Every structure is written in C-alpha cells, then in structure tokens.
Amino acid sequence: MLEWSRPWEMVLDTSEAPFWKWFTGGELNASHNCLDRHLARRGDKVAYHFVPEDEKEPLQSLTYRELYRRVNEFAVLLREFAGLRKGDRVTFHLPMTPELPISMLAAARLGVVHSEVFGGFSGQACGARIADSGSSVLVTLDGYARNGRTIDHKANADVAVETARKLGQEVRKVLVWRRYPGRDLSQAPMVEGRDYYVDELLPRFRGTQVPPEPVRSEDPLFLMYTSGTTGKPKGCQHSTGGYLAYVTGTSRYVLDLQEDDIYWCMADIGWITGHSYIVYGPLSLGATSVLYEGVPSYPDAARPWRLSESLGVTVFHTSPTAIRQLRKSLPEGPRGHNVRFRLLTTVGEPIEPEVWKWYFDVVGGGRAAITDTWWQTETGGFLCSTLPAVHPMKPGSAGPPLPGIFPVILDEDGREVPKGMGHAGNLCIRNPWPGVLQTIWGSPERYVAQYYHRYSKKPGSKDWRDWPYLTGDGAIEGADGYFRIIGRIDDVIKVAGHRLGAKELESACLTVPEVAEAAAVPLADEVKGRVPDIYVSLKPGSASSPEVVDKVRQSIVGLIGKIAAPQHVYVVEDMPKTRSGKIMRRVLAALSNGADCGDTSTLVNPEVVENIRRTVGTGASPKTGLSREAILQEVRDLD
Ligand code: PRX
User: Fold this and answer.
1) 3-state SS of the chain: helix, strand, coil percent to 5?
2) Residue 62: which residues within 8 A CB-CB, separation 6 or more?
3) Which ligand 1 atom lies nearest to the CA of residue 498?
4) DSSP structural state of residue 43
5) C-alpha to C-alpha distance for 534 and 23, rounded to whole angstroms
6) What is the DSSP string of 141-183?
7) Residues 519 and 583 sit within 8 Å (Cβ to Cβ)
8) What tens digit of pLDDT does each residue of 379-429 get?
C-alpha cells in the first residue's frame, strides 16, 4: 500500500530490543505517499472538505493537486525562510484548519520531525513541549472559531516562546498562518524579527516545489506528547515506515475507506487520532475527508447531521463523549435528515452499552456497522476492534485484536489471566507491531521503564517474546476473545476523551504559593465520562478563601488548558493519609463520587474523612451510566 524509494531488507530488527526497528534498509517519504503518488489518478479528487464553524462561511474543498501545491510552497518556506533541515524538530500549535495538515506534510516532505501541540492547550503547555523537543521554530495561527467565539490564538505563542526560553530553548521564528489571509484575528502584537505572517511570505514561493526527501524507515516522522504517571508529558516518537504502513493498513481494513467514501472523523488533529486517521492514513489511501473547524454541537446538535447529509458522509468517526453529548441534546439524532452512514466508529474512552445502542439504532438506523476502536497515542493505530461486516459486534467491548496483535492480560505477578475468567488485569501486548512508538523523545530510560520494565524478565534479551508492552489499561478478555477495556491503571484521567495526568494537575496546583498538598481524582460525568476534582490543603498561616480556589483553577487552566478545568476545588484541612504519609486518593475519589470509602482503618487521621464529606456534600456526583467502582479502580494512592 506504500511506495518506497528503496525497499526494506529486514521486516523487524530486534537487535536493540525493546527499541524496535521496522522495515530497516527501506527508504520512503510520507508526504510523497500522501500526495505525489496520487496526482496522476486522483489529482482532481477532493482530499479535504474544510467546513468552517460558521455555517454561513463557504466550504473549501481542497483537491489532492491543490494540497500538493500548498504543501510544496510551505515546505520551501520552511526550508528557505525558516532554515529547517532533515532531522530538525518543529512545533505546531495549530487548531483544526487545513493549515495543520499542510504544515505536517510540508515538514514530512523535508524529513523534519513535527510536534503538534493540541490547539486547546495553553501557551505554557506549548512552551514546555517546545523546550522538550528542542524546536527553534513555532508555527501557529492568528485565531479561529470555537463555539461561536473567535479565539485569539496567537497570544498563546508569546507565552509559549517565553516559557520555552525559561526552560533554555530559544525560538528563532514564529510563523503565523492567518485564518483569513490579510486580515488579523489576534490582538497580540507581532514581534519584529521573530514573528512573520505566512500569507505575506508565501508569494515569494508561489509555484515552487521540493522533491520529497527520502528518509530511512526508522527515521522519526513526528512526536506526540501525552500524559502518564509522572508530571512531565512524554514525547512519543513515531517512525516513518512502520507508522505509515500501520495507519494505512488499518485505515483500509478497520475504517474500510473505499475510493468513493466521504469520511468524517470529528477528532482534533492535535491528538493522535487526527494524526493517524485524519491525516496520514486517509491521505495515504487517497481518501476524501471532512475537516471541521469547530465544536460538533454548534450552533445546535443537528449540525453534524446537516453536514453529513449535505456532504454525503458515509464513514463517521467520533468519541463516546461526542455521542453522549449529541444524544443528550437531540435524542432523535439524524432522524429527518437523509444521512447515509455505512460505518460508524468510536474511539478514546469506554462506551456505555446504552450509548452504543443509540449510536447503532438512531444514528446508524440499525444498518451501519459500528466499530469500537481501542488504542493509544503510543500504539500509532488501532489495536483492538471488530472489522466491519466481518466480526459480530458487541456493545461495550472493543473486540478482538487486529491481525498481527497478540494481547495478553497479566496479573500483578505476571501470570496470564486466561480468557473467560471474568476478572480484569493489566492489558499487555506480547509482540511489537509496526505502529508502536520507537521511544520517548530524549528519555530512552523512561521509555523502557514505562512500557517494558514491569513484565520483562530478561533485561538484555534480543527476543521480542521477552518484552510484553504494558498498555496502562485494565481489561477483561471474554470467552470469545473480545477485550473489554475497563480504564487506566496509571493515574491518567480521561476527560472527554482527553488524556490528563493526575500528577500534572497536582503539580499545577502546587505552583500556587498557599498550597501545601494537592490531589486530583476523577469524578464521573454524564457527558465527559470523567472530570477532574481537586483537593488541596494549605500551608500554615494561609486561610481558605474564594481567591485561593480561583488561583488553583487559574493555575490549572494556565499551565495545561481549559480542557483540564476542575469541576470542584475543595480546600481541606488535612488529606486522608496512611501511617507512611501516603495521600489516600482512593478515599477522596470515593467522597467525590458519593461512593463507599471502604476500609479507612489504615488511615492515620480517619477523622478527616467526615470533615471532608461535609465539605463535599453527598449530592456531588451527577447521574451517570458509569459504575463508581470502575472509577475507583483507576485511582491509586499518592506517595
Ligand atoms: O484508556 C484507553 C482509552 O484511551 C487511552 C489512550 O488515550 P490516548 O493516548 O489519548 O489515545 C486516544 C486515542 C486512541 C487508552 O489507554 N481508550 C482508547 N480507546 C478506547 C479506550 N477505552 C475504551 N475503549 C476504547 N475504544
């Protein structure tokens, strides 16, 4: 399914296990595979229908030829004006407009490693990622539409550059795309000698082209930062050959993208779903995709159905949070609209069976297949899913592993939990696969510690069988070999499908001078699945006040972004602790969710539980189809 400028000699090189190298000896270019090779046959085919959030604004349809032209011009600009070369990193902080895939493909064309930071992350979060990746160029956009408002996005760039500088990384150039060339949506001033409007530079490069730079299969294509157990986000490094092969294959077999499909994935390209299944997979297959700027329920919950009808969407890909939201605001879904879905997919969080049924019956009219695709930023592409029209579907269960994926459930001692036993364990993958991350950027030790240390018994082994990959998810394998994902086992909170680290939230709280200790726990939410609840205790001499609560909230939003905004910030006199000083997050999570606290006899200060219960109240937990026990299983105590 790919064109290689040099064929590979070896499929899997395990000589530096667990640093896997796929298709070694081979050379290719991702931008060539997504663009150039389609020109002869699909030059006039639409690659992206870009749909602005404002319904009055016209649709922009970009053909493969047009996309090729724009990518080439921007690639020349990156090389000639920004001085980027093969192997350099470049950070993008771009929202959902065509400029994002254009920038990605332009970087890939030069062999430059891109690192896109989700547009909704704050300037500080972006700056920390710039510094970690060692990028000296930032590409951003002046502003964009979100829920009917115009977001001044360029303002984040100034914070990002400042944050990166404090962390020791100088940004030489900030390239600012404008949502409407020639017109400014940002109030932030342009810094002379650093900030440049892309639309003012591009005329110099009109009509120019760059030959795609052949890179080695194992050369990195991009970094994608994600949250884990520790406070610092990790830059998952994805390869060119293995990754592109994996997303192309899975886009064909799981998304079943065919020549005349109109495919709409509602995820943001700023997350791995968008990288794999809006950009690289679909473009590599020469598919036509919808790129939507805004929130799905703007201006009303029928928007996705109007849009799907008018563009003739056949394959629709979204998250349980979006499905819950659409169901809640418009239970009749697309009824009355002439939608023609043949495949509906979901990703990112467990989907409750009743939500699944609504998706199937109401959105799909009982005719469309559903695929519940389970995977992770680290895995590059889908790992478990039913194949449409091949496997029976089972609501609430992601399904069997894809071909070439061999999952296993291990208990705490590394023993296999046989299928059909009905109890959960740590979901691992026995074997490497082409889409798996190569390493954590700049932290090879952390990569091994995070994903392989737990169950690898022979540290120096070159045999892949000795390196089961730890996913960080708890799961149950049914007697039929279908995997049901329970949730994270590593202090990751999935908020509306976005992955946030409890430690990141807590670190943000601790930057508030009055705060002595902080704990972040998941609270069940009817629409978003989970939202963060924050508990803080204050330093001696500081008193609780609305200002402190506000500072905590502002600090989280400033350091991470609005997506991390807590539902509640509770100031407590003391945290529930064990004799060894561990904060019992589990007790706090039980209090937040109105669940039973369980045995509190190991606490050194059991009396605080009742005090906190009074602060929290009993009605704090909203109605939800999620089990409280499932949420508590995701929470670990804090050293
Ligand atoms: O806990 C699993 C959950 O999302 C995590 C990965 O999040 P992220 O790296 O942000 O990637 C999201 C897009 C793949 C997983 O460890 N998750 C993902 N898909 C599903 C899921 N949980 C249940 N069912 C799914 N289909």
Assistant:
1) 30, 25, 45
2) 46, 47, 48, 49, 50, 70, 98
3) 10
4) T
5) 46
6) ESEEEETTEEEE-HHHHHHHHHHHHHTT----EEEEE-SBTTB
7) yes
8) 999 999 999 999 999 999 999 999 999 999 999 999 999 999 999 999 999
459: phi then psi, degrees, rounded to nearest 5: -50, -40
Ligand 1 pocket by C-beta < 6 Å: which residues? 226, 272-273, 347-350, 372-377, 398, 471-473, 485, 488, 494, 499
Cα angle: 278, vertex 284, 285; to 5 degrees: 95
Q: Say whether 304 sits in a helix, a strand or coil.
A: helix
Ligand 1: nearest atom to the Cα of 271:
10
* 37 C-beta neighbours (distance < 10 Å), count: 16
Contact indicator for 316, 345 with CB cutoff of 8 Å: yes
Tens-place pLDDT, residues 288-322: 999 999 999 999 999 999 999 999 999 999 999 99
Q: Centre a 10 Å sphere on the Cβ of residue 7 and count the other Cβ atoms it contains.
A: 10
Which tokens sit at 117?
Answer: 């930071």
223: three-class secondary structure by DSSP: strand
Q: Six-digit token pair at 554?
A: 């502002």
> Could you tell me the two tokens for 98?
């065509």
Atom of ligand 1 nearest to the CA of 485: 23
Give percent of the chain with pLDDT exceeding 70.
98
CA 308, 243, 497, 154 dihedral sign is negative
Closest CA to 104 of 227, 278, 294: 278
Residue ID of nearest Cα to ligand 1 atom 15 = 376
Cβ atoms < 10 Å from Cβ of 14: 18
Structural contact between residues 603 and 577, judged by C-beta atoms closer than 8 angstroms: yes
CA-to-CA separations, 126 to 155, 237, 561, in angstroms, rounded: 12, 17, 10
pLDDT band at 124, cuts 50/70/90?
very high
Q: For 335-380, how does the pLDDT look when each residue is reduced to its tens digit (9 = 90+)? A: 999 999 999 999 999 999 999 999 999 999 999 999 999 999 999 9
CA–centroid distance, residue 605 to ligand 1 (Å): 36
Q: Rounded to the nearest whole angstrom, what is the distance from the C-alpha of residue 349 to the centroid of ligand 1?
A: 5
CA of 296 to the centre of ligand 1 (A): 20
The protein residue whose alpha carbon is closest to atom 26 in ligand 1 is 374
DSSP string spanning 343-369?
EEEEESS---HHHHHHIIIIISTTTSE
Mutate to test the pocket of ligand 1, among 247, 265, 375, 470 (most ligand atoms within 8 A of CB): 375
Residue 453 to residue 229: CA distance in whole angstroms: 14
Q: What predicted TM-score, i.e. pTM, was given to this entire model?
A: 0.96
Separation in Å, CA 602 to CA 274, 409, 580, 585, 606:
45, 30, 10, 13, 8
Residue among 494, 563, 633 whose CB has most ligand 1 atoms within 8 A, to mutate? 494
| Amino acid present at 604 | V
Tell me, in angstroms, the distance from the centre of ligand 1 to residue 203's CA.
42
